[in-house]
Every structure is written in C-alpha cells, then in structure tokens.
Amino acid sequence: MKKFLCGVDLGGTKISTGIVDENGNIIKSIKIPTMAEKGPDVVIERIEESIYQVLKDTGLEMSNLKGIGIGSPGPLNAKKGIVISPPNLPHWSNVPIVEILSKRLGIEVRLENDANAAAIGEHLFGSGRGVDNFVYITVSTGIGGGVIIEGKLYSGENSNAAEIGHHTINFDGPRCNCGNYGCFEAYASGTAIARFAREGIEKGIKTKIKELAGEGEVKAEHVFEAAKLGDEFAKELVEKEAFYLGVGIANIMAFYNPRKIAIGGGVSAQWDMLYEKMMETVRKKALKPNAEVCEVVKAQLGENIGVLGAAALLL
Amino acid sequence: MKKFLCGVDLGGTKISTGIVDENGNIIKSIKIPTMAEKGPDVVIERIEESIYQVLKDTGLEMSNLKGIGIGSPGPLNAKKGIVISPPNLPHWSNVPIVEILSKRLGIEVRLENDANAAAIGEHLFGSGRGVDNFVYITVSTGIGGGVIIEGKLYSGENSNAAEIGHHTINFDGPRCNCGNYGCFEAYASGTAIARFAREGIEKGIKTKIKELAGEGEVKAEHVFEAAKLGDEFAKELVEKEAFYLGVGIANIMAFYNPRKIAIGGGVSAQWDMLYEKMMETVRKKALKPNAEVCEVVKAQLGENIGVLGAAALLL
C-alpha cells in the first residue's frame, strides 16, 4: 500500500497540516488557529486533532502514513525531538513533542526547525531538486535559512547553522531584535522595510505609503504598493531592499559556495521589483568564481512550503 | 613498512616541503625559493627537487611515502588537480599539476587550496582533533579559511566555500582588493591594520608606529609593537582589529554553527593583545546558542601548518 506523508507546520498563530504524497503533491491541507496562549498541552492536542481531521478528509488511516513531520519555530533540538522555548510559543519549555506525539499516535514523528524544514522541502520538491549544494532563505517578518550541503541538511553543532538573518552586514547599523547591530535581518526583512518607511514618514517625507496604510500600521506591503504607484520614497526603499538582499546573498555565496540560492517568504512575492537591482549588487560584491556557479531563484513552493517541508522530513 | 606523508606548501615566494608521519610529526622539512617569476615549468621542477631533497635528508625512498599533498594558492580545481591562475604564481594557467607530478614521480598526488589544506591539517593534527564541526581561519596579509563539516572538508560547488575574507561586514566600508567594499579582509587583515596606521600617520597623528617603521613601509607588526610600548593610536588600532575579528567570528558562528574556530596566520601571533576584546565583541554580536557551543582558540600548528596541512591531504 502506498505510503503518504503528513506534514505539520506549527506556527505561533496557526497550525497547517497536510497529507502529501512522495512526489510532493498535497492531497489535502487544513489550517487551524494554534491558540498558542493556552500553552503546549492544548497546542499538542490541536496538532493531533488536525492530523485526524486531514486523515478523515482524505479517507486515509494512520497506517497509510509513513510518518509525521513537524516544522516548528526554534530554538529546538531536532535530534532529541525537543522544542526548547520559541518566542512565539509561550509557556513552552523543553517540550519533548516527538516522544509525546509518537507515543499517542503510534507512528514515527520527526522534528526540525521551520526554516530547515522549508529548505529540505524546497530541495526535494521545488527549485532545489537535484541540487547538491543548495541554500534556501525566507525573507518575511524575519530572515531565516537552511542549507543543504552535498545533498544533506547541515544543521551545525546545535541545530543553529544558517542563522543567516543574524549575520552582520554593517557593524555600524541599526539594532536588531537579537541584540546585535546591523544584522542582515535588521536591513532586509519585511519588518525592516516597514521601519525604514516609518522613519521617513516621521521625518516628514511626503509619501503615498502613509495614505495606503491609513489608520493602521505601516507594513512592507504598503511600501511595495506605493512604489508600484510611482511614489519616489517608496521606490527608493525598494531599491535599498534589493541592495541589502544582494549584500546578504553575496555573503551566502562567500560562505557556502552553493549552486543555487532560493528565496521564499513574503518579500519574495515582489520578485520582479527586486531581482534586477539585487543581482546587480551580487555581481558587484560576490567573488566571481562563487557568483558564476550560483543561480539565484524565487522559491517554488510558495505558501505550501511549511507543510511540504515538514512532510519532507520523512524522506 | 610504515608509510610517511610528504607535504608541499607552494607559496608565491617559497616552497616548503616536509616529510611527516601519520601522527603529524614533521621528520624533516626544507624551504626553497619558489622562483615564481620563471613560470610553472621551473616551479614544478623545483617542487620535484625539494621532494627528492627531503627524501635524501631522511634516508627514505619514494616507496616509503603514502603520497604527496600539495597546498597551493587558489583559484584551483582540487578534484581535477588543476591550478587555475593564482595572482602570486604568474604565468600559471590551468596547470594540471597533479597529473604532471604523479606521472613523473610515480606516486599519488593530491591538491587543495592552501587555506583548506591548513584547515584539514589543524583538524587532524592540531586544535581541531576530534572536532566534527570546525572552522580554521588564517589572518595575515589576507584572510582565508577552511571549514570541516561533520568531519569532512566542505569545499562547495567549485572549491570556493569558506571565502571568509571576502564577506561584507560593512557595506559602507573601504574597498577591498577583490573589488567589493567592506570585506572582512579589508578591515581585519594585517594589510588592513597597516593601511589604517598609514592613514592615521598621513592625517598627522603622532605615533611611535612611524619611528618603528623607520624608512621602510609601515606594517602590522609595527602597530602591535607600538601598542606594546603604550602608544595610544596603536592601542586604538589593536582594539579596532580585535573588534573587527569579533564581527567576522560572530558571522562565522551564524553561518556554520561550529564547535570550534581556530585562528592562525601572522596576526594570531598577537593573541594575548587581541583575545579579550575580540571575545567581548563575539559575545555581544553572536546569537547566544551559537556562541555558547563554540570555542575560539589560537591555531596550534603555527608556521608548520602549510606542510602539515598539505601532508594531511593524504589521510
């Protein structure tokens, strides 16, 4: 009997759970609120419920599954199957989620941090197929990444390799959430774009960004929208964003010398506005042999990457 | 019969060749001028001569050797055994040095770029013994590095992984030899220290550095010497050097999450003057889980690292 995979993308606000076949086709997926504020016991019950729900929806049984993969925010210990204490999963403290779920469900369960799971998913099912040296980065509210070295996830000494968002690209730069100054994330994340926009508005720069945000908070999406409408300040911010991405990508090339870098996450949705200036920066900043051998592409799996990445942990 | 290793450290100015046992003890080593200006044919002959010389000096024969390892400046293609076109080996263009030497000498020959060879040497014989995730960096006129991932050299898609010297730590920084701005090497190499000193002197800063250099060019060693004599400007430069090293090391931790980072090269000779401020910077800038798991040490192999690293290529 054909074995299916079950992927669980555990996030601070929602749990996405899906049944996936071994070629990376999603048979069915659902999203439910995490209810993170209720703590780990409730969240783990909700994960179980979501798994039984997708099994019911697809007419499958637990015995049709090869196993369950879970992509979770870090910090975590993937080998031991323990979620340590993610900032957006309050009350979690060294929760042995793999042991709990595998006992209750009677099936193999694997755990990986969400960015690493996404890298594995994109490697097996997306733009990284057949690419031995591959880096995936996600650029959204933060910047995370995962790196495939000679066909295998490289997770480092304690699962914290490829913390690409928290490497310094300007030691004189703005403070990052992590406490450091001038991190890649502090310049190139969606949060950073919005912050630069707000700083401009506070200085009195005339821009459509403010109108587009209305009463609400200024977000990165307003910046891209205003740039499309021809707003000069927004266009400048988008150009800067592309430059910062280029700096980070050139650094990734220097460290890992990969054959392909795939960019996912919310900001990558603006690919056409960013690509040219980003690659111009990469060409200027990267070592030639490293740049020549490396393709930079938009990640293919889009919003399904969470579920697909988690499912791919079983392969 | 016990097999010995022969390591050849091919440099722009000298060739160092040594016989090494399998525990990393140098039985005998010699240095001869490279005569790089005479081109590859002469240099390869000189390598051969140096090998015959150390064999004679030790009373060994070619058949006592397991093979010959060569550490060469890059760019090169290690797998194909070809030296491409190193800036300090003029007239070299895709020289198949492994094929040439293995045919002439009738023995296995291996090639690796010098920084990678040094990383392997330090991993097998020095501070990296038994450390699966290990990074070696050399800080001298330039900055190079090699990375051992799960016990194996990671060389990347085309042997250019761990080009640590050429990652940007400040995109607004000074121009680097590679053409980029604000590279780690442009801030923290010996050449950079000397450049910062000269810039200060040109601005009219009073400093002992100038006296120490005398009629000659200001070098990094004069800066460290002046700092030891209490010179304020020199002390400031040494403090900055330690800070820049700390920035680069924190970035290495973010990318590779190693268990140990060893620093070699000329600048590391000033370990005691640099260590405290360097580690203070690392603690401020690195992600905590990455910093906690990683030790930063002075490389153990010292000036023998070239020969030992080349010899280690056979293991």
TrEMBL record, chains A, B:
GO biological-process terms attached to the record: glycolytic process
InterPro entries reported in the protein's UniProt record: ATPase_NBD, ROK, ROK_cs, ROK_glcA
Protein family per UniProt: Belongs to the ROK (NagC/XylR) family.
Pfam families: ROK
Molecular function per GO: ATP binding; glucokinase activity
Name of the protein in question: Glucokinase
Source species, domain of life: Bacteria
Record's keyword terms, sorted: ATP-binding, Kinase, Nucleotide-binding, Transferase
EC code: 2.7.1.2
GO CC field: cytoplasm
Signal peptide: none
